[in-house]
Amino acid sequence: MLGRTAAxxxxxxxxVERAENIARLTEVGYRISLTPDTGSGHREDWKSTLVAAGxxxxxxxxxxxxxxxxxxxxxxxxxxxxxxVRSCLETARNNGRAVRTALTRxxxxxxxxxxxxxxxxxxxxxxxxxxxxxLDWVSQRSNLFRGALLGTLLRDEGYCFAQAGAxxxxxxxxARILDVKYHVLLPSHELIGGGLDSxxxxxxxxxxxxxxxxxxxxxxSYKPWNVxxxxxxxxxxxxxxxxxxEWIDRALKGLEQSTIGGTKARQHCANVLADLQPxxxxxxxxxxxxxxxxxxxxxxxxxxxxxxEEFHFQ
Amino acid sequence: xxxxxxxxxxxxxxxxxxxxxxTSRPAYEAVSDxxxxxxxxxxxxxxxxxxxxxxxxxxxxxxxxxxGSNERLIPFDLIPRVLAARxxxxxxxxxxxxxxxxxAFLYDIYHRQDIVRAGRIPSDMINQNEAFLxxxxxxxxxxxxxxxxxxxxxxxTGENEFFVxxxxxxxxxxxxxxxxxxxxxxHLFPELFSAHRVRPVEHYPDWLRQTLESVAPAxxxxxxxxxxLTPGIHNSAYFEHAFLADQMGVELVQGSDLFIENGxxxxxxxxxxxxxxVLYRRVDDAFLDxxxxxxxxxxxxxxxxxxxxxxxxxxxxAPGTGIADDKAIYAxxxxxxxxxxxxxxxxxxxxxxxxxxxxxxxxxxxxxxxLVVKEVHGSGGYGMLIGPAATKKELADFHKKIEAKPHHYIxxxxxxxxxxxxxxxxxxxxxxxDLRPFVLLGxxxxxxxxxxxxxxxxxxxxxxxxxxxxxxxxxxxxxD
Lengths: 314, 480
Prior knowledge:
The structure holds 2 protein chains of 2 kinds. Chain A is mostly helical.
C-alpha cells in the first residue's frame, strides 16, 4: 500500500470524526448559552467553545467580536478555517477521492452524498432554531460513514489506518469536550456542585450522547469525579479515552501482522494505555484534570506523528 | 405512433436507425421496436435512475475554465447506438491499419526519418514541430511501440462513409465511460441484451493490463509491476485514472509517490518502497520529468526520462507520440499509411486546409462560414469555430485570429455527422454522434468492439465534446 494511500485513509477518517465532534462541541456551546441565569451573558460561553476546539486565536484573527452568529459560522461554514465542519467534510471527501479505489462503494457514497447535501445548505437556513437539527444531521452522516466502513471494508491495512485515524481524532475531541468545563466560568454566586454546575456537566455528557448511559452506569447525579472517570477511563464508554486507545492499540497490532513498521507507535500507545487504567482517577485529580487533559492531547498528537513517520505518510 | 417515438422531419443527415422511407435499418430493428413500446414516463424514470447511478458513483468530470474542482456529470443517453457486424469489420480493419502506420511513422521520425528523405513530408513539419521531442531520437522503446493506447475519433456521414477526425495517441480518455455505460445499460435494460447478441467490452481492463505487461523493460525479469500515474484529484479525468487502476488491480500514483534510486523507479509504500516497471501515465509529456522537460512541474518524477532511456522503466504512451496526432501532421496521414504499409487507406481522412500555406489560407478565409476551424494544438472542442453555426461576430473574430497566427489553425469542411435517436426533453429525436473506439498495442493489437459514442444533445449541434454540452451513449457491436 502506498504511504499516501495510508495517509489519506487515516485523515479521511479523522476528518469525518472531526466534523462530528465539531458539531458536538457546537452543541455544547449552544446549550450552555441557553442556560438560565448565566449572569455575565453569552460571551464567555462561546469563548469556552473556541478554546476547547483549539481555535480561539484563529477565530480572533478573523472576527473582532465573539458573538453566537460569528462563532457558529466559523465552526460550521467557514471555508478558510481548516477545522470547520465544511472544511472537514470537504477534506474528508478529497482524501476519499484520492484513494477512491481503497474505499468500498458504500463508504464513498456516504462521504460523497454528505458533501453534496452539505454544499446545498445555505448558512442562513439554520436561523430560527434549526441549528440543533443541523448538528444532528452532521452526526448522523458521520454515523452513516462509520457504519459503511464497519460493514463493508476489508479488514486489511487500510482498515487499520482508517480506525487509527478515527480513534485518535475521537480521543482528542473527547479530551477537548471535557476540558470545556474548565474554561466555562461559574458565576460567582453559583456554588460548585450547585444547579448550574450540574447542568453544565450534564451538557458535556449530552454532547457525547452519554447523559443517559451515565445514569445507567453511576445511578447518581452528575458529579465531576464520575463524569471525568466516565469519559476518561471507562472501557465500556465508546467515546472515552480508554476505549479510543484500546482501538488504536488494536489497529496498530493489526498493522504489526501485515507490515514491518510501527514499533515506536505501538510502544507509545501501550504507554498511553497504561495511564488509562481504572486505578488512575486519584492521580489524575491530584495533578489537576485540566493539566491531565492537556498532556493527553499532546501525547495523542505524538501517536499520530509516530504513525505518520513509521508508515511513510510523507 | 406514440408521442415518445415522434421523429423530426427527414433531413440531409444520415440517420443510423431510420432509413429514408421511415423503416428502420436491420441492426436497429429490435431497438426500434423496443422504443415504440416505451412510454415517455418510462424513459424519464429510467433516465433519472441512470443519473442517480452515475452521480452516486462519483463519475464526474471537471470543466476547464470553470475552476479546477468544478465537477459535472456527463449526461448519459439511454438509447444505445448500434453497429452491425459488417460495419464494425470495416472499421476494425481501417483502425488497425492506421494505428500500425502511425507507430511505424513514430519509429521512423525518431530514427532515420526515411519519410522525410523520401520527400513525402517536409522536414520542418517534423523537426520544427512543437510536439516533436528531440530527446527521443535514437531510442528504441520496448517492442518499438510508441502509442500503446489510442482513441481514434471517427464520424460517419453515410451508409459506408466513415472519416477519421482525430487520432488521439497521447493520453486518450473516455474508456471508463464506455465501461460504465455498459454496466448501467445492463442494469437498466437487461431485456434488451437478451434480445440482441451484443459483443462484450468488459475485458478491456484485462487487455490493458496484458498490453502494459507486454511492454515491460527487457531488463525486468520478474512479473512486472504496473502503476497508473495521475496528476491528481483535480484533473478532469481523475475518475477514469482511479477507475482503471482499480479495474486492473494496480496502484494509482502521483508524482510525489515515486522516486528513483539505483537505476530503478520506486513508489513509496507503508513499508518503505516497491519497484515499478511500467508506468501508465496520464500526465502530459511536459510534466513528466522536471529535469528534462518543464522544470516547474510538480506532477512528474525528477530523472524519470533518463531512467526510461536507460531501460529502467517503460513509460506508456511513450513521450513524443503527440506528433502523430498533431493537427498539422493529420493532413499527411494518408501519405503515412501508404508509405509504411504499401496499402491504400481504408478509412477516409477529412480534407484539411493548412492556414500556414498562403493558397489554402486564402480559401479558408473566403469560405469561413462553411468550414470548421481548429487550433493546431487545441483539444476538447476549445478554441474551435463551426462556421455554419457561428455568428457574424464570431466569424470576424476568427478571421482576425487566423490572419494574426495562420500556422496555429487548420480548417476542414463541415461534415454532415450522422444522427442516432436520443432521449431529449422533447421526446425521442435524432442527435449527431461520433465514435471513439479504443485500441491497445503491445505484443499484439487489441481492439475492443464498440467504444465511446459521444452525442451532441443540443438540437442541431455538431459539437459532441463533454465540455461543450455533449453526452455519451452505450455503443453496441452486434454479432453476426
